[in-house]
Amino acid sequence: MDVSADLNELTRCPVGLVSSGVKSILDIGRTLEYLETLGVPVLTYGTSREFPAFFSRHSGFNAPWNVTDPATAANVLHAQWKLGMNNGALFAVPIPAEYEAAGMSIQKAVDQAVAESEANGISKRGKEATPWLLARVSELTQGASRISNVALLENAALVGGKIAVEYQKLAIPTVRDDPSQ
């Protein structure tokens, strides 16, 4: 079983991880279940609780909660900090709407690459599977997956930055009130 160390790290680092979801080449349902087992809150960012599938806004899996704005996300993180919790929270941000059509096409390539990896045995090679799948998806999409990847990164960074600004507004009064900080 190829389990990313990032998942376990979320149990001991009080961070807000802003992500485009679980890479669609992975088992999204199993990953969400594993995060729940670890006690890591998973929230979607937006009006839907449907967890994004990286290149697609739809995965068929729901997160327990959603937040619709940076202030609410910051409040979740700040509440965890005030309660002395040492775990992080995952905020899943769906692909921007203008990249959704390309995302659907890329998802088809992902599905094809996964099927090929199962047929040729790559899927059973643990950590070798992910790089092979990513390279194959890039090949099948003639590089379009890279363009969407950049858009996903930029969008997640934008949302993360907005959450950080709102969190700072909450944290500064707390630090000023506590001279030991």
TrEMBL record:
Pfam families: Indigoidine_A. It comes from the Eukaryota. SUPFAM superfamilies: Indigoidine synthase A-like. GO terms for molecular function: hydrolase activity, acting on glycosyl bonds; metal ion binding; pseudouridylate synthase activity. Coiled coil: none annotated. Keywords: Glycosidase, Hydrolase, Lyase, Manganese, Metal-binding. InterPro entries: Indigdn_synthA-like (IPR022830), PsuG (IPR007342). One of its GO terms (cellular component) is cytoplasm. This is Pseudouridine-5'-phosphate glycosidase. It comes from Asterophora parasitica.
